[in-house]
Amino acid sequence: GTRSNVDGQAWLSTSGDRVILAARLYQRGKTPRLAATGRVYQWVEEQTISLAESAEQIWTDLGIPKSDIMLIEGRNTSEELRNLSQWMGDQSPQRIGLLTSAYHLPRAMRLAKANGLELIPLAADQQAGTIDAVPLCLIPSRRGFRMTELATKEYLAALVKR
User: Fold this and answer.
1) What torsion do the CA atoms of 128, 133, 138, 143 make, to the nearest 10 degrees?
2) Are 10 and 3 in contact (CB under 8 A)?
3) Checking phi first, is residue 60 left (phi over 0); if not, alpha (psi -120 to 50) or beta?
4) Considering the entire predicted model, what is its pTM?
Protein backbone atom coordinates (compact mmCIF):
# COMPACT_ATOMS: atom_id res chain seq x y z
CA GLY A 1 0.00 0.00 0.00
CA THR A 2 3.00 2.34 -0.18
CA ARG A 3 5.66 3.64 -2.50
CA SER A 4 8.71 5.87 -2.06
CA ASN A 5 10.92 8.08 -4.18
CA VAL A 6 14.70 8.31 -4.54
CA ASP A 7 14.84 10.64 -1.53
CA GLY A 8 13.17 8.03 0.70
CA GLN A 9 9.90 9.93 0.98
CA ALA A 10 6.92 7.58 1.37
CA TRP A 11 3.37 7.97 0.12
CA LEU A 12 0.27 5.81 -0.21
CA SER A 13 -0.20 3.82 -3.41
CA THR A 14 -3.48 2.70 -4.96
CA SER A 15 -3.91 0.07 -2.25
CA GLY A 16 -2.98 2.47 0.56
CA ASP A 17 -6.27 1.70 2.32
CA ARG A 18 -4.38 -1.12 4.06
CA VAL A 19 -1.93 1.29 5.69
CA ILE A 20 -4.63 3.76 6.74
CA LEU A 21 -6.95 1.05 8.12
CA ALA A 22 -4.09 -0.27 10.28
CA ALA A 23 -3.41 3.26 11.58
CA ARG A 24 -7.11 3.74 12.36
CA LEU A 25 -7.24 0.46 14.29
CA TYR A 26 -4.20 1.55 16.30
CA GLN A 27 -5.50 5.06 16.97
CA ARG A 28 -8.89 3.70 18.08
CA GLY A 29 -7.19 1.40 20.60
CA LYS A 30 -8.12 -1.82 18.76
CA THR A 31 -4.49 -2.93 18.57
CA PRO A 32 -1.41 -2.05 20.66
CA ARG A 33 1.12 -2.76 17.86
CA LEU A 34 1.39 -2.74 14.10
CA ALA A 35 3.55 -4.84 11.82
CA ALA A 36 4.51 -3.96 8.26
CA THR A 37 5.90 -6.21 5.55
CA GLY A 38 7.36 -5.69 2.11
CA ARG A 39 10.78 -5.20 0.69
CA VAL A 40 12.66 -3.15 -1.90
CA TYR A 41 12.05 -4.51 -5.38
CA GLN A 42 15.01 -4.20 -7.77
CA TRP A 43 12.78 -3.49 -10.78
CA VAL A 44 11.46 -0.28 -9.19
CA GLU A 45 14.45 2.03 -9.68
CA GLU A 46 13.14 4.98 -7.66
CA GLN A 47 12.32 2.85 -4.59
CA THR A 48 15.08 3.39 -2.04
CA ILE A 49 13.36 2.15 1.13
CA SER A 50 11.33 -1.02 1.60
CA LEU A 51 7.56 -1.10 1.47
CA ALA A 52 7.60 -1.92 5.20
CA GLU A 53 9.78 1.11 5.93
CA SER A 54 7.44 3.26 3.83
CA ALA A 55 4.48 2.11 5.93
CA GLU A 56 6.48 2.78 9.10
CA GLN A 57 7.29 6.29 7.87
CA ILE A 58 3.61 7.05 7.18
CA TRP A 59 2.52 5.60 10.54
CA THR A 60 5.09 7.66 12.47
CA ASP A 61 3.99 10.76 10.52
CA LEU A 62 0.48 9.99 11.83
CA GLY A 63 1.78 9.94 15.40
CA ILE A 64 2.30 6.22 15.98
CA PRO A 65 5.51 5.62 17.98
CA LYS A 66 8.23 3.54 16.30
CA SER A 67 8.29 1.36 19.42
CA ASP A 68 4.78 0.14 18.50
CA ILE A 69 5.76 -0.78 14.93
CA MET A 70 7.43 -4.03 13.90
CA LEU A 71 8.94 -4.67 10.46
CA ILE A 72 8.78 -8.23 9.15
CA GLU A 73 11.15 -9.43 6.43
CA GLY A 74 10.18 -11.61 3.50
CA ARG A 75 10.13 -11.65 -0.29
CA ASN A 76 6.48 -12.69 -0.44
CA THR A 77 3.45 -13.44 1.73
CA SER A 78 4.61 -16.99 2.41
CA GLU A 79 8.00 -15.88 3.76
CA GLU A 80 6.47 -13.01 5.73
CA LEU A 81 4.04 -15.34 7.51
CA ARG A 82 6.79 -17.90 8.15
CA ASN A 83 8.89 -15.13 9.72
CA LEU A 84 5.93 -14.00 11.84
CA SER A 85 5.43 -17.57 13.01
CA GLN A 86 9.11 -17.87 13.94
CA TRP A 87 8.99 -14.51 15.75
CA MET A 88 6.01 -15.69 17.79
CA GLY A 89 7.72 -18.97 18.62
CA ASP A 90 6.14 -20.68 21.60
CA GLN A 91 4.47 -17.55 22.93
CA SER A 92 0.98 -18.00 24.26
CA PRO A 93 -1.68 -17.46 21.60
CA GLN A 94 -2.46 -13.82 21.00
CA ARG A 95 -5.23 -12.13 19.08
CA ILE A 96 -3.45 -11.05 15.91
CA GLY A 97 -5.15 -9.67 12.86
CA LEU A 98 -3.99 -10.19 9.31
CA LEU A 99 -4.83 -7.05 7.36
CA THR A 100 -4.41 -7.20 3.60
CA SER A 101 -6.33 -6.50 0.42
CA ALA A 102 -9.66 -8.32 0.27
CA TYR A 103 -8.74 -10.18 -2.94
CA HIS A 104 -5.52 -11.44 -1.29
CA LEU A 105 -7.01 -12.38 2.08
CA PRO A 106 -8.10 -15.98 1.26
CA ARG A 107 -4.58 -16.90 0.10
CA ALA A 108 -2.92 -15.07 3.00
CA MET A 109 -5.14 -16.93 5.48
CA ARG A 110 -4.29 -20.29 3.85
CA LEU A 111 -0.58 -19.45 4.19
CA ALA A 112 -1.07 -18.35 7.80
CA LYS A 113 -2.75 -21.65 8.64
CA ALA A 114 0.06 -23.58 6.88
CA ASN A 115 2.48 -21.77 9.20
CA GLY A 116 0.49 -22.69 12.30
CA LEU A 117 -0.96 -19.20 12.77
CA GLU A 118 -4.55 -18.55 13.75
CA LEU A 119 -5.12 -14.98 12.67
CA ILE A 120 -8.17 -12.75 12.48
CA PRO A 121 -8.86 -11.80 8.83
CA LEU A 122 -9.18 -8.05 8.21
CA ALA A 123 -10.09 -7.02 4.66
CA ALA A 124 -8.98 -3.69 3.22
CA ASP A 125 -8.72 -2.29 -0.29
CA GLN A 126 -12.07 -3.78 -1.24
CA GLN A 127 -12.81 -3.43 -4.93
CA ALA A 128 -16.39 -4.62 -4.95
CA GLY A 129 -19.20 -3.04 -6.86
CA THR A 130 -21.25 -3.41 -9.95
CA ILE A 131 -20.04 -2.97 -13.48
CA ASP A 132 -22.29 -1.12 -15.85
CA ALA A 133 -22.79 -2.98 -19.12
CA VAL A 134 -21.75 -0.20 -21.47
CA PRO A 135 -19.70 -0.39 -24.65
CA LEU A 136 -16.75 1.30 -22.91
CA CYS A 137 -16.28 -1.88 -20.85
CA LEU A 138 -15.05 -3.60 -24.02
CA ILE A 139 -12.10 -1.23 -24.41
CA PRO A 140 -8.95 -2.56 -22.70
CA SER A 141 -7.93 -0.43 -19.75
CA ARG A 142 -5.16 -0.25 -17.18
CA ARG A 143 -7.63 -1.10 -14.37
CA GLY A 144 -9.03 -4.06 -16.33
CA PHE A 145 -5.57 -5.49 -16.96
CA ARG A 146 -4.63 -4.98 -13.29
CA MET A 147 -7.77 -6.79 -12.08
CA THR A 148 -7.07 -9.66 -14.50
CA GLU A 149 -3.49 -9.85 -13.23
CA LEU A 150 -4.60 -9.97 -9.59
CA ALA A 151 -7.30 -12.56 -10.20
CA THR A 152 -4.93 -14.77 -12.22
CA LYS A 153 -2.21 -14.58 -9.56
CA GLU A 154 -4.62 -15.55 -6.75
CA TYR A 155 -6.19 -18.34 -8.81
CA LEU A 156 -2.81 -19.85 -9.74
CA ALA A 157 -1.65 -19.65 -6.11
CA ALA A 158 -4.77 -21.53 -5.00
CA LEU A 159 -4.23 -24.09 -7.77
CA VAL A 160 -0.73 -24.92 -6.49
CA LYS A 161 -1.91 -24.79 -2.86
CA ARG A 162 0.07 -21.60 -1.99
Assistant:
1) -20
2) yes
3) alpha
4) 0.77
